[in-house]
Specification:
Radius of gyration: 23 Å
CATH superfamily of the largest domain: Vaccinia Virus protein VP39
Distance between the termini: 41 Å
CATH topology of the largest domain: Rossmann fold
CATH architecture of the largest domain: 3-Layer(aba) Sandwich
Strand order of the largest sheet: 10-11-9-8-5-6-7-14
Largest sheet: 8 strands, mixed
Strand content: 25-35%
Helix content: 25-40%
Mean pLDDT: 92
Shape: globular
Number of helices: 18
Structural class: alpha+beta
CATH class of the largest domain: Alpha Beta
């Protein structure tokens, strides 16, 4: 039951369209997935749509016409009758391809904000309120592994979920932070080419699929959210370079949180200009609804080298002291030569200025990465591995970013074997001994270690699935 105050507000707002809007909330929600170009090319990913349908039997139907604002997004629907059968795969989230990062399940209208950012490979991008990671991984796909993404989430537990999704979706040029918007604003003045603020909101666009969002709605909560959004936008404003693009979005229809928030922001920041503003209502689109505003910061001003150095100058001496760490680095470089066949491919992984020791872990930081001193860092870049006693063990995150042609030893496994692997089981196999990249449908699932005629399972225990293997 929708709150009476909400009904009155929407009636005043929509007038003659109100009845259509209410009927839309009574219809089934729209579902979609977004293919991940970081894992494979478009043709191979499109072929996966048929594989997903085949895996699911009669449960799943995927449309082949893309979501209008995202060429890698596709609507899907589930057969409710078939989904009652627990022995069957009930949706794309139960496929090994999902665990391989081939796609991200994302509400279709939530794909709209990033589509307006015009992301180009090589840019620096901030996602200020990034969890659980749908929009961050969409940004990362547009960056194509070049440039840098900083994904920030204030709530610690949500930041860990964000980091996990960054890992699953094969993002290697992202830094994940767990900071306040105020700290982000102070630390990165004029640093980013593009900024996304997908702000926490009253969640009116989630009413159709989330009863809790309905129960938590109130006029007081709307006012609280609007005040918080003003504060977040204010701190985000200074992080964008002059000439850059800021996109503000919410999944609510409240004017206080949407159009009026943008107006308040422009009044406070006259250097910004509104480019476009759009409200996606569920009775007009195939989605749950969103508000999106695109703004630019101008006119263009040159940032001095000195200003840039304050943010990007990293003290290599602090990162890699000439002590026992150099011996550890030799272990990693020896492992690298056994894993990656081509000197050219090994270049980035050998770059000393991009290698960062984080305790016993080794990370590859994005090129031109900023100083992270004093920040709450969840993930400083791509985790390459961990130094254990007398050996280097590669990280799952690294496996997810690799393609089978980039490693010396890879193994393709069947659908049944993939489900067994994801459950933590060993896989019978004959081949070259040692570490191998375990792949399903040609894309990486994780690491294995071939000993004798068995692939020992190195899929992380915390990610293993307890599904039926029938």
């Amino acid at each position: 039951m929708l709150p009476i105050d909400y009904r009155i507000r929407m009636k005043d707002l929509l007038e003659d369209e109100y009845d259509d809007f209410i009927r839309s909330l009574e219809a089934p929600e729209y579902k979609a997935l977004r293919l991940n170009l970081l894992k494979a090319d478009r043709a191979q990913l499109l072929a996966f749509l048929s594989d997903l349908e085949k895996e699911a039997g009669d449960n799943l139907v995927i449309e082949r016409e893309p979501v209008p604002w995202e060429e890698c997004g596709f609507y899907y629907s589930l057969n409710k009758d078939a989904s009652d059968d627990e022995s069957k795969v009930r949706g794309p989230g139960s496929s090994p391809l999902h665990e391989a990062g081939a796609f991200y399940i994302q509400e279709p209208s939530a794909m709209k904000p990033v589509s307006l950012m015009d992301i180009k490979p090589g840019e620096r991008v901030l996602d200020m309120c990034a969890a659980p990671g749908g929009k961050s991984t969409q940004i990362a796909a547009d960056l194509g592994g070049e440039g840098m993404l900083i994904s920030n989430e204030y709530v610690r537990q949500r930041a860990l979920i964000l980091s996990s999704n960054i890992e699953r979706m094969a993002v290697k040029n992202a830094i994940v932070l767990n900071e306040t918007p105020e700290k982000i604003g102070r630390t990165f003045p004029g640093f980013f080419d593009k900024v996304l603020v997908d702000a926490p909101c009253s969640g009116e666009g989630m009413f159709r699929k989330n009863e809790q969002a309905v129960s938590e709605w109130s006029l007081e909560n709307v006012k609280m959210c609007a005040a918080r959004q003003d504060e977040i936008l204010d701190h985000a404003a200074c992080t964008l370079r002059y000439g850059g693009i800021l996109v503000y979005s919410t999944c609510t229809f409240s004017p206080e949180e949407d159009e009026e928030c943008v107006k308040r922001f422009l009044d406070l920041h006259p250097e910004y200009e509104l480019i476009s503003m759009e409200k996606l209502y569920p009775h007009k689109i195939r989605g749950e609804g969103h508000f999106v505003a695109k703004l630019s910061r101008g006119p263009v001003k040159d940032q001095t080298d000195a200003e840039s150095d304050k943010i990007t100058n990293r003290d290599a001496g602090r990162r890699r002291k000439k002590d026992a760490r150099d011996e550890r680095l030799k272990e990693y470089l020896n492992f690298l030569k056994e894993l990656i066949p081509d000197d050219l491919l090994r270049g980035d992984y050998e770059a000393a200025e991009r290698l960062l020791f984080f305790g016993d872990n080794l990370y590859l930081v994005p090129g031109g990465a900023p100083k992270l001193d004093g920040l709450k860092v969840v993930r400083p870049g791509l985790q390459l591995g961990t130094f254990l006693k007398n050996r280097f063990e590669p990280a799952h995150a690294w496996a997810m970013t690799l393609k089978k042609e980039e490693v010396i030893n890879s193994v393709d496994i069947t659908y049944e074997e993939a489900r067994a692997y994801l459950a933590g089981m060993t896989i019978p196999h004959e081949g070259l001994g040692g570490w191998c990249l375990v792949c399903y449908n040609g894309i990486s699932l994780g690491w294995g270690k071939l000993t004798g005629n068995i692939i020992k399972n190195h899929y992380p225990k915390g990610l293993r699935k307890n599904w039926s293997l029938k």
